[in-house]
Design goal:
The protein is of the alpha/beta class and 256 residues long. It contains eleven helices and seven strands. It starts with a helix and ends with a helix.
Length: 256
């Protein structure tokens, strides 16, 4: 793509992919240092910081990386590449109810309860009230069992488990009644699916990052997450104004 754009605008010379990637990452590193000087927080939500009402956590299995990462793959090695063992099986991502990405970690063993537990401990000091997961009905008994043997994890039980509306429809009727957010006081009408928008955006990187090295993959995913948060923060005032107007309309209808 870069070669074709270069030829279209009449420029000569060859573009080296590795050098271009290195220069791009160095440029973004300088941009990050400038943000630190201006005290900008790339992984925070100004609308719900420091007290967050809810945090949604889910895994993205598309963001894996091949053990033998190379810049080019021949058609003959395509089958071998697909059968190769993976270094990372995906990402475990946590977002706030406004869609801002807050935390993420590499999954090496698939989606296990330990990853959810680790992410939850990162929000122990932020007074999160609701903790959204697609498997809240199974994860919360695990947390209660672990908290009995590890007293330092008992404060995590103060959060209320929350099963997203879409996944609650796929669970049993008992799960939908007990764990659905529609039956929890203070949860409002939140669907608990804000994380899917972030995963949909990050899934665009899956085609290229799986061929990268570990460091390049981590840097590129971090840059895309920072870019997502930057756009969310720039449009946050518009989104909150629309939500406020919508809630006021519902209040008027209920009074009538």
């Amino acid at each position: 793509m870069l070669e074709r754009r270069k030829q279209h605008y009449g420029r000569t010379g060859k573009i080296h992919g590795d050098v271009f990637q290195r220069s791009f990452l160095e440029y973004m590193a300088c941009q990050y240092e400038c943000q630190k000087m201006t005290c900008e927080e790339p992984f925070s939500c100004p609308a719900c910081t420091p007290k967050m009402l809810a945090v949604s956590v889910d895994g993205n299995r598309k963001q894996y990386r091949f053990r033998q990462s190379q810049s080019q793959w021949s058609a003959a090695r395509e089958t071998e590449r697909r059968a190769s063992r993976l270094d990372e099986e995906g990402l475990e991502v946590a977002v706030c109810r406004h869609g801002g990405r807050l935390k993420a970690l590499n999954m090496f063993r698939g989606e296990i309860f330990a990853y959810l537990l680790f992410v939850q401990t990162q929000f122990q000091a932020t007074n999160v009230h609701f903790y959204w997961t697609d498997i809240a009905c199974k994860y919360w008994p695990y947390l209660e069992k672990v908290a009995k043997t590890m007293p330092e994890l008992r404060p995590l039980l103060s959060m209320q488990p929350f099963l997203s509306v879409m996944h609650a429809k796929a669970h049993s009727t008992k799960c939908e009644i007990v764990w659905s957010g529609r039956n929890l006081e203070g949860a409002g009408s939140k669907a608990g699916e804000e994380l899917e928008m972030v995963n949909s955006f990050l899934s665009r990187c899956a085609i290229t990052t799986k061929y990268m090295t570990k460091s390049a993959r981590n840097d590129m995913l971090t840059l895309h997450a920072m870019g997502w948060n930057r756009r969310k923060q720039e449009n946050l005032h518009v989104v909150l104004a629309k939500r406020s107007r919508k809630s006021q309309c519902w209040r008027v209808r209920l009074k009538k």
